Amino acid sequence: MIDTPIIEEINVWTTPLYVTQMPDHDFLKDALLAAVYQQKAAQTIAIESRVAPKAKHALHESTLDFLELADANIMEAKRTFEELILEIAASVNKAFWPEDMEADAHIIESWYHVTQNGGYHDVHSHPNCSWCGIYYLEPGDAKDEGKGGLNRFYDPRANAEHYADPGTAYLGSQGVWDFTPTEGQIVIFPSYLKHSALPYFGQKDRVVIAFNSIIEAY
Predict the structure, then answer these.
(1) What per-residue string of b and e applies to 151-174 under the rule 16 or more CB within 10 Å gives b?
(2) Mean pLDDT of the chain
(3) Which of 11, 53, 82, 115 could anchor a disulfide with 47, C-beta 3.0 to 4.6 Å?
(4) pLDDT tens, 42-92?
(5) Where are the alpha helices (DSSP H) in 44-198?
(6) Domains defined along the chain, listed by start
(7) Is the dihedral of CA 124, 129, 130, 135 positive or negative?
(8) Residue pLDDT, tens place only, 166-213
(9) Please, what is the angle between helix 72-92 and helix 25-42, to 10°?
């Protein structure tokens, strides 16, 4: 009689993404939208950050310090984002951090996108930070089927689809994961993960607040 071998599964190089709901979205939404549109009205160019303007179309982008504005609602939103980031970072790094380590999350860059009909943002990633987030303040018509405006995340395994047969079905057929914007949701993801905002077709503005963060230990 042949003994059945024990096969151990080891998952390596996984890419964690996290989705949650902004706790005070209903309370903060109107004030945050007002702040976004106040800043947008003062913009002299569409891509005020001046970062990769050719990768963006039919959208307005602020400078990279939106969450630094001296506004109580913006400050509350920033505090919430940093608490969520720290909770996620502590959880995913639990096996790698010393037991007595203390840490803080700091948002180092933040901006809004106001995307209009036909707008999009080409594929990119965010250097010089560890965790990134997108807060769907107002998804506009993106919630409706066929209106676009989805965020697409790309498989970071560069050679994952160099060959396909039934044995590779688990890898997926597209190498992408599409996230449909839902009002008040936040998606948090590692900075190396390439992503894009697919073309949006709607009469309402699609408004998001995005941010980059670092973790500091002490």
Answers:
(1) bebbbeeeeeeeeeeeeeeeeeee
(2) 94
(3) 53
(4) 999 999 999 999 999 999 999 999 999 999 999 999 999 999 999 999 999
(5) 72-92
(6) 18-94+104-156+171-217 (2.60.120.620)
(7) negative
(8) 998 888 767 889 989 899 999 999 999 999 999 999 999 999 999 999
(9) 110
> How many secondary structure helices (H) and strands (E) does the chain include?
2, 9
DSSP labels, 160-185: TTSS-SGGGGGG-SSSEEEE---TTE
Burial category of 176 from C-beta neighbours within 10 Å (exposed 0-12, middle 13-18, buried 19 and up): middle
Whether residue 140 has pLDDT greater than 90: yes
Q: Confirm if 123 and 58 have CB atoms less than 8 A apart.
A: no
End-to-end CA distance of the chain: 58
Compute how many other C-beta atoms are within 10 angstroms of the C-beta atom of residue 103.
Answer: 13
Structure-block tokens of residue 20: 């949650």
